[in-house]
Write a structure and sequence with these properties.
By secondary structure, the protein is α+β, with helices and mostly antiparallel strands. Helices cover 50% and strands 23% of the residues. The protein has three domains: 4-115, Methane Monooxygenase Hydroxylase, Chain G, domain 1 (Up-down Bundle); 117-222 and 313-370, Alpha-Beta Plaits, CATH 3.30.70; 233-302, Double Stranded RNA Binding Domain (2-Layer Sandwich). Helix 5 crosses helix 10.
Length: 371
């Protein structure tokens, strides 16, 4: 009969054993009264445990099925009770098949367990080519992600917003925005949104009815816990200034804007959305950690996947991942080479669900093949 090493390579089994240990530790920690009083810690532990629970459950069930199969084989081999041996012989194939199915399920969930453990994502949207139309398109994408967050029950926090030429009027465009979206499964889904989003449509300002192409870029950054990334404060230069409005004029007479520069990498962050210097500093440091964490992930991806051609889930801003064609009423995802209902995608409806599910399945298949 197949053994555990036949179904799952020993190195992968060691990883699964470690996940089972971490699941047990998180479960014990959540029962600790001292932890229960710390809402942030409870949330982090709950997300982490929920992320690995499916793979741990399947792995332990596979081990139980293998143990059951071994017991049945022992009954058959003993030959002491012919009737019992006959029943065991009839039952054994189904138990073996169950163990093999559980092993496959555990492997599929394993390759996405780390993604599910990331409970917060920083989305950066920037208007690309297309002038005012690109700014309007960027605002629509931001609304799309806000609707998706509402539908999934994720929290949505707008950290920074740079308005377009239309000013603060309703329906105006934006040059850029930074938002934090947090909740179970958020990275598994939003990691696939990184890249260039193209829109083909007739702008409201177009008098000849010609279709224009405009773009917006999206960067999806996993927001790490502070324990995941250590930054030496001595490496960060901090500058406090007054917030700046359109045209460079001061919009705040008090110095509340926070500008951070990480000297070793040159990464810069400026935050001025809040009127509170303390809040701007907190948001700036969160964004800086996310950007530095993403840099480290990029280095690891480059070392690990030099031969990789498909860049699914990366934050490559130059990659065109999707085109939204208003005339045809479809959104074409170029990685899947499939089209989806445009309104269903922009409204975060069923079409968006189908597209994100297909992207996750494609990435899972790629990772399993690499394994």
């Amino acid at each position: 009969m197949p053994t555990a090493s036949d179904l799952i390579p020993p190195a992968v089994a060691a990883k699964l054993d470690d996940l089972a240990r971490r699941y047990e530790e998180a479960s014990h920690a959540l029962q600790d009264p001292d932890v229960a009083g710390d809402f942030k810690r409870v949330r982090e532990l709950s997300i982490r445990r929920a992320a690995i629970e499916p793979v741990v459950t399947d792995y332990l069930a596979m081990q139980a099925a293998l143990a059951e199969a071994a017991d049945l084989e022992a009954v058959i081999a003993s030959g002491e009770d012919k009737e019992l041996a006959s029943l065991a012989r009839d039952e054994l194939p189904a138990v073996r098949a169950r163990a093999e199915a559980l092993a496959r399920a555990a492997l599929e969930k394993l390759v996405s367990a780390d993604d599910r453990a990331i409970g917060s994502v920083v989305l950066e949207l920037r208007a690309g080519v297309g002038g005012d139309e690109a700014a309007l398109w960027t605002a629509e994408l931001l609304d799309m992600y806000r609707r998706l967050a509402d539908k999934r029950g994720w929290s949505f926090e707008l950290m920074d917003l740079s308005e377009g030429g239309g000013g603060a009027a309703a329906g105006s465009g934006i040059k850029g925005a930074v938002a934090t979206i947090a909740g179970p499964g958020v990275w598994s889904e939003l990691a696939h949104e990184a890249g260039t989003h193209c829109v083909k449509r007739v702008p409201a300002t177009e008098t000849q009815g010609r279709i224009h192409t405009s773009t917006a870029t999206v960067a999806a950054l996993p927001e790490p816990e502070e324990i995941d990334l250590k930054i030496d404060p001595a490496d960060v230069m901090e500058d406090i200034t007054t917030a700046q409005g359109p045209g460079g004029q001061n919009v705040n007479k008090v110095s509340t804007a926070v500008h951070l520069i990480h000297r070793p990498t040159g990464v810069e962050v400026r935050m001025q959305e809040s009127k509170s210097q303390r809040q701007n500093r907190e948001k700036a440091w969160r964004l800086l950690r996310a950007r530095l964490y993403e840099l480290e992930l990029q280095k690891q991806r480059a070392e690990r996947e030099k031969a990789r051609n498909a860049q699914i889930g990366s934050a490559d801003r130059s990659e065109r991942i999707r085109t939204y064609r208003f005339k045809e009423g479809m959104a074409v995802d170029h990685r899947l080479n499939q089209d989806f209902n445009l309104i269903g995608v922009l409204s975060a409806g069923e079409a968006m669900d189908d597209m994100l599910r297909a992207l996750q399945e494609q990435e899972t298949a790629r990772r399993l093949a690499a394994m």
